Amino acid sequence: KGTQAERISDRLGVVAISTGDIFRANVRGGTPLGVAARKYMDNGDFVPDSVTNEMVRNRLSQDDAKEGFLLDGYPRTVAQVDYLDGILAAVEQKLGVVLQLTADDEEIVSRLLGRAMETDRSDDNESVIRHRLDLYHQQTEAVVAKYAGRGILTEVDGIGGIEDVTDRVLGNIVDVLRVPVRGL
Q1: Rounded distance, CA 26 to CA 3, Å?
Q2: How is the chain split into domains, by residue range?
Q3: pTM score, two decimals?
Q4: 3-class DSSP assignment, residue 154
Q5: Topology adopted by domain 2-174
Q6: What is the rounded CA–CA span in Å between residue 123 and residue 41?
Q7: What is the pLDDT of residues 24-65, one digit of tens each?
Q8: Of 78, 15, 1, which is closest to residue 46 (Cα–Cα)?
Q9: CA 71/CA 95 separation, integer angstroms
Q10: Which positions are catalytic?
């Protein structure tokens, strides 16, 4: 999903904001929020909403997010949905579309294990990956249902070549938001 977020944000001309990147930057920087997040990340647990929400709020307040953004990995809980609603309402914005890339759990495990061979991430081992998938099913599926209930959820098949998935995602965004896309 991170690869797609970068590709899509570039084509839309908006910033991609990844909670994983925000967490890692705060951990590297030794910030109080980073110290709080690290112990959860190392165990493959979701970082608590209070820490995550504050990091996202800080990031969304930066100038490059004022003209639009693509969130990657947030919100993951219903409480985070409510917090994000409050952030956006305060600046008179709302989400235009929520995308869910769908894939079989075994495909996800395989892809992330492949990524682990290419990168140095402590959270890319099979037990941690499977634990995160379990947490996803326990917590994030309620977020998907909430956005579906609002009529702003679009599900896109995340299986296939990178360019094929990007094209499917962008096609859905254009259909829903009627926004210009670079290269289409």
Answers
A1: 21
A2: 2-174
A3: 0.80
A4: strand
A5: Rossmann fold (3.40.50)
A6: 7
A7: 999 999 999 999 999 888 887 778 999 999 999 999 999 999
A8: 78
A9: 10
A10: 1, 76, 115, 121, 132
